[in-house]
Amino acid sequence: MATVRRLTSSAIRSRKHARFAVVTAYDAPFARCAEEAGIDVLLVGDSMGNVVLGYESTTPVELGDMCRAAGAVARGTSKAHIIVDLPFGSYQASDEDAVRSSIALVKAGASSVKLEGGESAAPRIAAIVRAGIPVCAHIGVLPQTAAIGAGFKRKSDTARLLADGRAVEAAGAFAVVLEMVDPAAAVELTQALSIPTIGIGAGGGCDAQVLVMHDMLGLFAHAPPFAKRYAEIASIATEAFRTYAREVREGTFPSRTTASEDRAASNADAPVYAISSASTKPTA
What's this model's pTM, rounded to 2 decimal places? Predict the structure, then answer.
């Protein structure tokens, strides 16, 4: 049987001028859903600090958090390219720290890593690439330091953005995220760079778009204004919890059947789940 190979960074780089979708994922079930929907580039973002772990910013997220999430997404998929964020503090101090942290993410399941910063981050990108690990860059608004710096203000200095974009491209990045970049500047960047631009709040002129899963599914109450909601999963889940709690209080769940009927129903209808050290996936 042929081994299924994940989408490579070079294949993503070749998608310049070909629109494609990227979405964040932090666990196996939702990663599986995204891959089955045809989304073959997944970002394990440190946005999990906000939408999963309940922090007010991404700054407290640790490398161990990212490794666990990367592993979960990798186990839930087979073909998707998995970009994983290097969290704040895991790469800024030195090239050695950056490479060491990137290796940890790859061992956990990452196909590539992402770090924030333009010209200032170029040496780190080059060091990681020299170590054989593909890098996606991130310029514009930088969430890891925005909360303690300039804040989440749209970036429109085209000259600065072009300098940052060219620097990360020259350092070896295979793609670059443009976050909250003025749409006109994003168009100019997309035209100037030979690597794909992945926009988030940067208009429709980028090569690709990325959204935070919890924002697009209506699972996070504080989604940014540029995020389109494609579903309202939070309200569906709340109603399911409400119905379950009511049925427990009323005594209608579990249903009042005899023990023999329960056993018969279980044997006839319920799948048997086996968990072993070889696989964590249910087997019917």
Answer: 0.90
